Amino acid sequence: MTTSLEFKEGAKLPTVKKNITQDNINLYAKASGDFNPIHIDADFARDTPLGGTVAHGMLILAYISQMMTGAFGRGWLSGGRLNVRFRAPGRPGDVITVSGSIRRVEKSEGYQTIDCDVLCSNQNDEPVITGDARVEVKDNENRG
Amino acid sequence: MVKKLEYQDLREGQEFPPASFQLDAATVADYLKAVEEDNVIYENSGLVPPMAVAALSLKALINAISMPPGTIHVSQEFEFIDAVSTQDTLTSLARVGRVQERGKLHLITIETSVLNQQNKAVLAGKTGFILPVE
Fold it and tell me: What is the pTM of this model?
């Protein structure tokens, strides 16, 4: 689904909320081919400094991409940029809220360049991923 | 099975062997289920979520390097240059960007690019890892 977001500075991007479950982590391991035991082996993970399994950073990053696709449609698929830092692990049981806002809009002939701040935080309001995103949207682009 | 490169042996500018992959409809369906993505843009369009392409390009990387327990994926940049469809055959290229040793940690960045069957870039990325010095 693509929202009817107005491209103006300060506009909030449509929030995405996700529950991290071990089932999702296992599915992501299968889909991505990343079977690092820190993600999928509870016995192994218990004895590491993390104390338990954690979600793939790329799984949580996919939620940001999901938010951007919802806001900008195909423009995100062929003109999106992400630059993020992983601040804390996402764990099974966490509720991740993905949010963002438009920081800057630059209008050019036939398209707009939109810079956004993006954030994934957990249920304790701790940042899990922080960063920024940029997307170029053509003026006549169908965002659906 | 190809022997993995030890991370201590990585040198700036070192290139990894190209890895080809395809994201067929079943793989994309598994990915969409895993990330709980239900955007209609992917329904019957053959379009592949850009982060699925990114994940598969990193898979090639993960399979190529032996990293110690305690390795942390700290940063990530992606540029989604062009849309990818399930018909595309992709090739992932990767090279070592920076290698730094800071105290008991190694900082390594890997630069990746993904090309389609027309040799056109569809994705570029930069991945940052912190690894404990063993």
Answer: 0.93
